[in-house]
């Protein structure tokens, strides 16, 4: 309840307001934005239209000149929006002051205010709201224009890196050094912001509650990077000497370990350094991007240093894999750490330029500086190595012969280094930077591939060697022979080399220095394996292992069943050796076809997708594979119809021998001289074949002899029959017999015939019978007839001698 004095004061105030002229109070309301000429809404509408137009032009720009003009336009638009906001700020303050004088609207239950005061407050609030909206729109346009300017700068940097033929001026020109002498205000502002964020994160990590932890983490990072690497290499060297077998495996293992330990300890040290900052508070986006890029760059530089140390192997010269002399290696010892240090230092400069979105001029300066210094190091290294080799040759020292690959690397490095420096001098900085990074990347990939191939080869050779523990264990556990171990070693080595070769190709064509990681390489390989090339066959990479397992198990089961059939089941049947061999061969061929089908099914191949393969195969069968198919079908006929079987003695084309093996395509025939003739199966089906042993045929031994007409035929027949009857291999039934074959001018021809159990006994039996017959004939004083040719020659010789005697007399 109001007191009388308070009520009187409030009444006098209300009367004063009623008597005051309305124009005196509302004077500021007449034109609250009179000072903002032209109208802010008009300016904002024009600015928004200009911003939209610039966005369209940026999307269509193709040259750096166009992007540069658009970048200047965005800066002008940002400045105009700043000016507009600054012009509207006094009006906002004036309207706010007037609203403060009027005060807030009365609450419910209080004395009502006059309509004029309420109308004035509403007008002031409406004007202030319009000014606030105008300021917000100006800030939004300013932010969009600033972001567009950043995007234009990024596009210019990307275009600079990709447009290798862009000439931006020589490094000796004034334009190149302008960012150092007279840096742009935007670059200074962005670098100051980056430095401020870095300083804030550094100061936060050294606060009282975090100081000792920061000191401990930094000390631990230094210890891991230095002593941790040294002790790890010493320990792993002892492990290799203690547990690995003698040979090249120790050297290749130590080279891989040197690289791996260098990279691993550097990665741990960088992560400890990163944890120094993030344990206090989350890093800003700019510092987070810088930390991620710096970590990746540090690992690449550690890889450069590690590969250099592994290649030179200064502490263990006898373990050096590369063919380098000790003095040459000692002369090159500082180049790999120097190259790694330069790449880290100036790569960090380029990384900062990318993070803060520096101007194109600053980016060109950083790229040119990196390319120039690294190019000079890459040029100096092979020149120094060559100078040391030349000096040693003049001194008469025996030098290691340089390999073809080493010579190519030497020449390519020299040429690329010279090209890099010349490109910088003539103004092609983008090309020089690209060539520098590509040269470093190619050298890294090739060196890593070289060490990994040697290690994989030596590891497979040691694991499957009959002299090592692993090889002896495999021989004992799986009943392997030495040749089996050699085969497994060759296969695993080939698989390892193919995998490494695939990884190298993917790395060379899809990687770059400072940006590619092992994870990204694996993702690329997986994308290749899961690409459209395999999707058309519905092949899932996960099914590859299943297919390999099915193939291995199928071949093992097939060989086991084949061995069981050939050595256990079939020998206990009444079938002969030929039938058994034919059945085993037929079973093997059908089994291999089934194993292939099961493997393809496990691989996930849809048979509908193989229709084009079947069509192409049909065409090939009709033309190029006609003979192969004909021999294949003939082999199946031989195995099923069995006109010729294993063990038969056959004659074809004037050649006679024993059938040793009937394959699907050809048949192996062993001749009498132990040589083997390969006959296509189609010839055994289409040509006349003499099977001497078909149907248990007996061998026939026939000997034809020529006697003079003065002999007694009956006496000679008895002698021949006695010789046949007395020989043990001649069968009694059918009995031997002698036939009077011919009576001619040369004499009487008698042939004696007998039978032996097998045609294979004919040759040996005939030879023995000839010995016995000649012995019996001489014992009975029976002589053989002399050939007519011999008699004729003797008569001619007698006549010639008589003529000579007549002429001499």
From TrEMBL:
Keywords: Cell membrane, Membrane, Signal, Transmembrane, Transmembrane helix. GO terms for cellular component: plasma membrane. Residues 628-693 form the Mechanosensitive ion channel MscS domain. Residues 1-26 form the signal peptide. It is a multi-pass membrane protein. Residues 701-783 form the Mechanosensitive ion channel MscS C-terminal domain. It is found in: Cell membrane. Residues 136-196 form the DUF3772 domain. The chain crosses the membrane at residues 210-232, 253-277, 297-314, 334-352, 364-383, 404-431, 437-464, 485-509, 544-561, 581-604. Pfam families: DUF3772 (PF12607), MS_channel_1st (PF21088), MS_channel_2nd (PF00924), MS_channel_3rd (PF21082). GO terms for molecular function: mechanosensitive monoatomic ion channel activity. SUPFAM superfamilies: Mechanosensitive channel protein MscS (YggB), C-terminal domain, Mechanosensitive channel protein MscS (YggB), transmembrane region, Sm-like ribonucleoproteins. Residues 585-626 form the Mechanosensitive ion channel transmembrane helices 2/3 domain. Belongs to the MscS (TC 1.A.23) family. This is Mechanosensitive ion channel protein. It comes from Serratia marcescens subsp. marcescens Db11.
């Amino acid at each position: 309840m109001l007191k009388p004095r308070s009520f009187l004061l409030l009444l006098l105030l209300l009367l004063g307001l009623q008597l005051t002229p309305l124009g005196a109070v509302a004077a500021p309301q007449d034109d609250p934005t009179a000072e903002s000429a032209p109208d802010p809404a008009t300016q904002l509408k024009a600015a928004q239209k200009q911003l939209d137009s610039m966005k369209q032009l940026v999307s269509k720009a193709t040259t750096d000149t166009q992007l540069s003009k658009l970048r200047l336009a965005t800066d002008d638009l940002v400045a105009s929006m700043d000016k507009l906001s600054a012009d509207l700020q006094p009006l906002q303050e004036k309207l706010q002051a007037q609203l403060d004088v009027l005060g807030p609207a009365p609450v419910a239950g209080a004395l009502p205010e006059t309509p004029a005061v309420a109308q004035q407050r509403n007008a002031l609030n409406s004007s202030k709201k319009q000014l606030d909206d105008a300021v917000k729109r100006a800030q939004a346009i300013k932010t969009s224009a600033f972001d567009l300017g950043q995007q234009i700068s990024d596009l210019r940097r990307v275009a600079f890196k990709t447009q290798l033929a862009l000439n931006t001026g020589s490094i000796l020109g004034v334009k190149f050094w302008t960012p150092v002498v007279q840096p742009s205000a935007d670059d200074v502002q962005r670098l100051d912001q980056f430095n401020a964020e870095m300083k804030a994160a550094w100061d936060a990590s050294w606060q009282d509650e975090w100081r000792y932890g920061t000191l401990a983490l930094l000390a631990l990072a230094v210890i891991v990077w230095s002593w941790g690497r040294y002790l790890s290499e010493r320990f792993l060297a002892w492990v290799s000497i203690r547990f690995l077998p003698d040979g090249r495996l120790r050297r290749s293992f130590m080279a891989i370990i040197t690289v791996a330990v260098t990279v691993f300890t550097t990665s741990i040290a960088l992560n400890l350094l990163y944890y120094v900052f993030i344990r206090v508070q989350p890093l800003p986006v700019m510092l987070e991007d810088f930390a991620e890029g710096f970590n990746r760059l540090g690992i690449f530089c550690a890889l450069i240093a590690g590969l250099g140390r592994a290649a030179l192997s200064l502490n263990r010269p006898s373990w050096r894999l590369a063919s380098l002399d000790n003095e040459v290696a000692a002369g090159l010892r500082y180049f790999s750490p120097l190259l790694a240090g330069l790449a880290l230092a100036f790569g960090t400069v380029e990384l900062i330029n990318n993070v803060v979105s520096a101007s194109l001029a600053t980016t060109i300066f950083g790229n040119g500086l990196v390319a120039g210094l690294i190019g000079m190091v890459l040029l100096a290294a092979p020149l120094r190595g060559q100078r040391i080799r030349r000096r040693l040759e003049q001194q008469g020292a025996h030098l290691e012969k340089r390999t073809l690959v080493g010579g190519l690397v030497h020449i390519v490095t020299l040429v690329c280094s010279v090209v890099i420096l010349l490109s910088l001098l003539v103004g092609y900085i983008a090309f020089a930077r690209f060539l520098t990074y590509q040269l470093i990347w190619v050298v890294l990939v090739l060196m890593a591939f070289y060490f990994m191939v040697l290690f994989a080869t030596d590891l497979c050779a040691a694991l499957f060697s009959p002299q090592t523990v692993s090889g002896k264990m495999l021989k004992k556990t799986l009943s392997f022979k030495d040749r089996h171990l050699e085969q497994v070693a060759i296969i695993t080595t080939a698989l390892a080399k193919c995998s490494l070769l695939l990884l190298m190709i993917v790395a060379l064509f899809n990687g770059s220095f400072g940006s590619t990681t092992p994870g990204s390489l694996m993702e690329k390989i997986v994308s290749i394996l899961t690409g459209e090339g395999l999707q058309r066959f519905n092949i899932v990479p996960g099914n590859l292992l299943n297919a390999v397992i099915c193939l291995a198990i199928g071949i093992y089961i097939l060989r086991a069943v084949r061995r069981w059939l050939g050595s256990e089941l079939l020998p206990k049947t009444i079938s002969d050796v030929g039938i058994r061999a034919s059945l085993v061969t037929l079973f093997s061929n059908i089994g291999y076809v089934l194993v292939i089908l099961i493997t393809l099914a496990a691989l996930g191949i849809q048979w509908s997708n193989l229709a084009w393969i079947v069509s192409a195969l049909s065409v090939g069968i009709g033309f190029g594979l006609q003979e192969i198919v004909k021999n294949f079908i003939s082999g199946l006929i031989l195995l099923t119809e069995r006109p010729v079987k294993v063990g038969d003695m056959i004659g074809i084309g004037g050649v006679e021998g024993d059938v040793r093996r009937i394959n699907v395509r050809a048949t192996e025939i062993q001749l009498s001289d132990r040589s083997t003739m390969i006959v296509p199966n189609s010839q055994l089906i289409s040509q006349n074949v003499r099977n001497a042993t078909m149907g248990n045929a007996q061998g026939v031994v026939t000997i034809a002899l020529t006697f003079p007409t003065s002999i007694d035929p009956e006496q000679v027949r008895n002698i021949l029959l006695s010789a046949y009857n007395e020989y043990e291999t001649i069968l009694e039934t059918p009995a031997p017999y002698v036939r009077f074959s011919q009576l001619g001018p040369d004499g009487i021809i008698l042939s004696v015939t007998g039978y032996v159990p097998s045609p294979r006994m004919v040759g040996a039996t005939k030879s023995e019978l000839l010995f016995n017959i000649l012995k019996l004939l001489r014992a009975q004083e029976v002589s053989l007839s002399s050939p007519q040719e011999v008699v004729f020659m003797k008569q001619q010789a007698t006549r010639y001698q008589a003529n000579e005697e007549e002429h001499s007399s």
